[in-house]
Structures are given as structure tokens and as C-alpha cells.
Amino acid sequence: MDSRRRTVAALAAAATAASLALVTTAPAHAETRTTRLISTTTATGQNAYFEGGGGSSVWFSDPGGLWRNVNGAVSSVTTADVDVEQVSSDGTRAVVRTDKPLIAGDGDASFDLYLLDAGTVPASVTLISTAGSAGDVSLGAASPDLSRIVYQGTSAYVVANGSATILGGAGSDFQLASRDATAVVYTYNGSQRRDIGGQTTDVGTTPAVAISDDGLTGYVSNGGIIRRFTAPASAASATFTTISGNGSYNGSTPDGQSVFVATPDKLVSADTDTGTDVYRFDVGSAVPVLMTGAAVTTDVATEAITPSRSLVFTDGSGPARRLLRSDATGVARDLGTGVPGQPVFAAVTTTGAVVLTGYDTNELSTGTYLVDAAGALTQLSTGGYFAGSSPDGSKVWYFTAPSPYRVYESAVPVSPPSPPADTTTPTASAKAKKRQENDGRIEVQVTCTGTEACRVTGAGTLSVTVPATRGKRKFALTAPLTLLSPGQKAVVAFKVRKKAKKAAALALRRGGRAQAVLRIAVADTSGNTRALPVKVRLR
Q: Region (Disordered) spans which residues (predicted)?
């Protein structure tokens, strides 16, 4: 039994004899949808399991084998006991793993990978793992159309155009790949390498945790240190930039331009809670964005990242646990509003919608729901358990329990495409008197010069130097959050605490210096940021 079937069995065990009653609390927003039974051919008393979907096809299995439902017409794909690893985006093909010989040429009893093409009748069967299959073989990655497949046998291999090519050499190990499997990271002879079209690049020895769709950017992480690597396809080695020295990798965007890091460190003045928070670090910005701010009551757990650089996360534990989604600026919204019971994350779609399942106090489903990017709630099922969804969320599959399980499809109206992400850096200016009195505050005038509102924060350091002793002391400076409308200007005041003010006064009396190096951080409503440096000397 594969992991998907074990998950189904565990959930259904909690259901016992409970009925699937209609939820009495109406969702905040209801849309027209259609629901249909997928596992129509499963015999009475037998369980059906969702295996994958694509296009107009849904694949499911039961004791009779593997089946494919195309617009209501069900046909048998194979009667062999197989585990479905991935279904193609058009729903016509699937990669399966089995220790049963599906063709005469497979003479061993170990697990192999096969490609089943249900576009023909009967379905055609092709052995994928033709090389390095002395032992069990497992799928590493595959392109959505299954034209390119990476698998791990005695070594790591890439299969394209019907032929297998070894990565590195004998004994290589697959690490990860881009979503279309064109860029692959693997280890060989003690080093970690990236392969793009046969060109290899050394990406160090720290374990890779992500790679962008184009393969030119990635992230490595170990021991709390997270670094970004970049390299053209033809480069011999990658260039590294440290992102965090005390955090854990929580995900990145497909383009590799943003990475999410959980850390107990307080990196911005708005981070005032005592728990671990998640920050977003964007390429080209020196100021991280706090993604889990005022809404957080304790340590958080990242669930998913949306295409618009938003974060879906849980806050708290037990009955008090919440499911939230923060926008690109870090403002969070509770996704459980209108959902009976406790919401549990299931999936995020390419439109930014979140699919979730509600659970009552007995761990039984109150239904499957979809919250779109605007926060509108749609109920998809009454008592079903989430099984899978299409990338855009137009179709969501769920199963009913208790046994016998049945697979259903809910057709969800597709939300209009999200507008292109705003990645333009906000425009603003900052100026200050180069010499200011040591009166407990340092003033900087900030003007929001663009067409979007500005969120302004500030941080900096006051360096106090006494020439006679050649000593230097540093004191942290912060400025409160200031909100500016387009065209508005305001004075941002950095507070100089008594200890720093006293040290500065003493140094100035002795002929020393007190200089503040300030950084004004300006963010727009889309989360884009700009850092404005300012230097001020006290007198």
C-alpha cells in the first residue's frame, strides 16, 4: 500500500460510523459548481482511491486495478498492482512504480518505473528504468507532460526521447529538480552539481533545498545558514550570497527571486512577538518583509507560498490553531472564517486560491472548501476529505468515508487570472540635516514620490568615538512605522535612548564624534521595497 492509501486509511479510521450530514453554517460565498462520482465502476463494498488527474481525465484504483475516467467514461488501464507516481498534465499518461513485470523484458523482482499511455486501447506500457535497475528504482522528478523523467537507481538518470543518461557517473544521487525537470541537482564523488542540458556546474557541498524554474538560481541550507546561489548554465561554479545565519528554509518562489525564512531573530521593528516568525527576502532588496507579524501568537508553520509571494501558514496548535494567508506586504487574513470546525490546509492553486478541509472536535470532516485570492469562500463538499486538485483549482477531487471510499470531483469556477505581479521598486526620497543636536532624536524627512502608498520604517546605528581612547561604541536606532499617501511627506524620528545620548554627549565634550548611519526602508502595497541610506552627525 502506498503513502496515499495509508493517508486515506488513517483519515477514514477516524470517521467510524459518523454520517456525512450537510453543514448547517452557510459559506460566506457560494458559487455554482458541479459534483460527479468518479469511481463509478468500483464494486459494492470495495474501496476506491484517487491516483491523479489531468485535462478531462481522472485516474483511480480499486481491487480491480487501475482505471481512468474521461468525462464519465471509465476504462481499465491495468489490472496489475501498481503505485501511481505522477499523471501527465493532459491526463493521458502516468508514471507508475511496481515490482510486477508489466512487460516480458523486465526479468527482476525489484521495483521499476513504467510509463502507461492510456491514449491507446489497450494502454501501451514502456519500461522507463532500463539502466541502473539492479535494485529498487524510485522517481526523482518529471516534467508535467512526462516527456522528461529523472529517476534514482544504482545511480541518478535522466530519461528523454526514450533514452536514459547517467548524471555524473556511477553512484550519483539525485537531490532535486526544477518543475519541468530540465535543471537537476545531484551529488557525485563528494560534490554537488547542477545539470542543465548536459552542462554541469559545481554548486558546493551544502545540501540544496530549491532551484528556480530556469535553473539559474537556487538555495542551499545547513545548520541554520541559508545561501542563494546563482550561475549561468555554462558556468563552472556558482556564486553564493548568504541570506540568513540563523534560520530555516521555508520555501521560495518558482523564479528564485524570493525566499522565505523562519527565524527567532527580530529583523524589523514591527516584529514584537516572542515566537519564531517567517520573513521574505527578495533579490535586490536589503530589507526583509515580515510575513507573520501582528496576527501571530506563537511559533508558526509555513504551509505554502502563492504565486503572488503571499504566505499560507498555521499559527498555534491544538483547538486554537489558525490557518492564515498573508499578502505580499505581510498583512494576514484568517482563512477559517465561515468554515465549521478547524481548517486544515490542503493545497494552493496557481490563481492564489487555498483549498482546505474543516475538521470537527472528533477529527471528522465538516467539508472541503476553497478560499479564492480575494477571500471569498466556496464549499466544495459536505463531509469529504481532500484528495487532489488541478493546478488552477478548477477541479478538486475528494473521497468520502467511512468505508467503502468513493472518489468525487467538484468542478470549481476558474478565477480570472491574477494580474501580473507588481515588482516595481517604490519611489521615495529621504533627506536630513547633516548635523543635528544631541537632543534624543534624529529627524529624517521622507517623501512618498510615487503613485502608491508607502510603508516607512527605519533602523540604524549610532557610532560614538573618543579619539583619546580610540574607543568606539555602537547603539541601535529604530524609527516607528509611518504610513504615507502618494505625494505625502513626513518626518521620521529615530529615538536616541538615554544611554546613547549620554555617551554621545561625553564623546563630543572630549573632541570625539557621534555619527548615525540610518537606513530608511520604504515598501509599497505589493511588498516591493527600497532602502534609502542617510548619515547624520550629532553636535
A: 412-438
Per residue in 134-155, pLDDT (tens digit) is: 789 999 999 999 999 999 999 9
Mean pLDDT (whole number) for 108-119: 92
Cβ contact 92:99 at 8 Å: no
Is the overall model pTM greater than 0.70, yes or no? yes
Nearest to 440 by CA among 507, 504, 517, 536: 504
Where along the chain do the CATH 2.60.40 domains lie?
A: 428-538
One DSSP character per residue, 404-460 reads SPEEEEEEPPPPPPPPPP--PPP-EEEE--SEE--SSEEEEEEEE-SSS-EEEEEEE
190 residue type, one letter: G
Whether the CB-CB separation of 76 and 87 falls below 8 Å is answered with: no
Instruction: Report the SS3 class of residue 15.
Output: helix
Q: Would strands 311-315 and 138-142 be described as parallel, antiparallel, or unpaired?
A: unpaired
Cell numbers placing 210: 530549491
Give tens-digit pLDDT for 66-111: 999 999 999 999 999 999 999 999 999 999 999 999 998 777 789 9
> Residue 527: pLDDT band by 50, 70, 90 thresholds?
confident
Condensed to tens digits (0 to 9), the pLDDT of residues 422-474 reads 888 899 999 999 999 999 999 999 999 988 899 999 999 999 998 766 678 89
Give the SS3 label for residue 319. helix
Helix (H, G, I), strand (E, B) or coil at 503: helix
C-beta of residue 365 within 8 angstroms of C-beta of residue 56: no
Task: Tell me the pLDDT tens digit for each residue of 375-425.
Answer: 999 999 988 999 999 998 899 999 998 889 999 999 865 556 667 888 888
428-538 CATH fold: Immunoglobulin-like (2.60.40)
Give the residue carrying C-alpha cell 471528522. 364
- Contact (Cβ atoms closer than 8 angstroms) between residue 324 and residue 300: no
Give the chain's length: 539
Omega of the bond leading into 122 within 30 degrees of 0 (cis): yes
**Collapsed DSSP state (helix, strand, coil) of residue 487:** coil
75 vs 82: CA distance, rounded Å: 16
Q: CA-to-CA distance for 80 and 114, rounded, in angstroms?
A: 12
Query: What gap in Å lies between CA 233 and CA 55, rounded to an integer?
Result: 33
pLDDT of residue 286: 85
Which triple of cell numbers denotes residue 104?
Answer: 516480458
Distance CA 117, CA 88 (A): 10
Dist CA 467 CA 278 (whole Å): 42
